[in-house]
Amino acid sequence: MSSETKTELETVQGSGAGSCCSPDGACHDAAADAPTAGVTTVYQVTGMTCGHCESAVGSELSALDGVTSVQAVAATGLVTVVSDAPLDEAAVREAVDEAGYELTGTA
Asked: Which of 16, 25, 79, 99 counts the most CB atoms within 10 A of its CB?
């Protein structure tokens, strides 16, 4: 490799331009710096046994106004809901009932 090519390579690698990493090699995750918006609530739901159960509960809860994400885990019975504002527990209970499961409270 010629010294000219080596110099060009060092310049490009060391510039940090167009990279998520700083010149010292430390990576930066912009998503980690973003403020988290919303309210996260974890509910205990009984009766879920599989992925279909998780999907059914997730689908019903996702339909509630203000819900931005739902993660249901059958193995633990925990359902994590992120919403724009606190949700009415009666509405959450009704959605879980509609899916065929029982809301037993918050975790």
From this structure: 79
